[in-house]
Amino acid sequence: MPTMYDSPAQFEPLIPSLIPASSIERAIDIARSSSQLSAAAHPSARAAVRELVRSMNSYYSNRIEGQGTHPLNIERALHQEFSDQPAVAYLQRVALAHIEAERLLENQVTAGESALSSGFLRAAHQALYARLNESDRTTDDGHVIVPGELRQEDVEVGRHIPPTAASVPRFLERMDQVYRSGDKPREWHVLLVTIACAHHRAAWVHPFRDGNGRAIRLQSHCALWKLSEGMWSPNRGLARSVDDYYARLHNADMPRRGDLDGRGNLTTAGLVEWIDFFLDICADQVHFMGRMLELDGMKRRIEALIMFRSAHDKALRPEAILPLYHVFASGPVTRREFAQLTGLQERTARSLLSRLLATGLLQSDTPLGPVRFGLPLDALQFLLPELYPEAATKLE
Predict the structure, then answer these.
(1) The model's pTM
(2) Total domain count for the chain?
(3) Which of 293, 321, 356 is where one domain is finished?
(4) What is each CA distance from 202 to 25, 116, 174, 257, 348, in whole angstroms?
(5) Which of 158, 321, 316 is nearest to 246 (CA)?
(6) Paired strand residues for 362
């Protein structure tokens, strides 16, 4: 007969008493490499990357749930352009809700709220599902998801039977006792391990009737926010290793494997394996983004993009290469300054500037305002190759 979980003692340990040195070293490397990203590019260019990552997070988190839509559809939803196909429009609304919820939650973390609390996890669920109408929150079995509401019934999730519904608040309270200690000043490598553990134990408790995965990934993203500054997120790596993601979560669900497997009811070895997997995902994302934002590499990719497009688009010219690199590395410039950087005659420079704005390679908040670096989806295969390759696929 399956074990019925109703006591927080049944999901100890919440953090392994001994973390392998290799795991600590990996977490230290992640923190160091992530902090170096703050020196990559100009803040305005990093802001463009941050917006891209937010859309990418929506795509990948929803794809993990089997509900991903094409990146171009997400881009259109951001401009309030929804498909006339109901199924596509639904996925657009879900993607947009995720982006808006993530932005709101990031602001709360910036304002000083702890992302590792159960209250924040409920707020993540609330922020996401409150942005969807009732029909969009209705599951295939007719259940209406109530934003932020803890489940009121016992459930089975695959081979895992989460705690009884009546005991969920007690399990969340125990998580707060352990993980909220992360509110105190701690080194980032310790917090990275804590975030990994909180991700698994929240999934194990399964506090909501539906929407647990999305809410937990929002929480993990926001718990990493002050380190990542939104320049990277584990979602991309988790979606690209989704079978391993679920397998490692499942392995850490298991009972203790014997006398050498810690002293808690659940396996310590399985939890350490999950921590290592999560840290590997984070490390891969940090290092990848570091390579993408490296200045010399970006200069070469801007050159490759412009040379390719100028061969097919007479309105684009090679003289755009250095000015584009300048705004990436040094920040926005006036339109007059950009035109001067091209070295072209005024009329030709204005034409080139207009084309760059039309393609999204430059952005501006007003018709005559300064211009800054842009990252349109159709340029990502050149500028940030492999970051978001789905954006370059054909929309069917």
Answers:
(1) 0.94
(2) 2
(3) 293
(4) 25, 10, 11, 21, 58
(5) 158
(6) 373
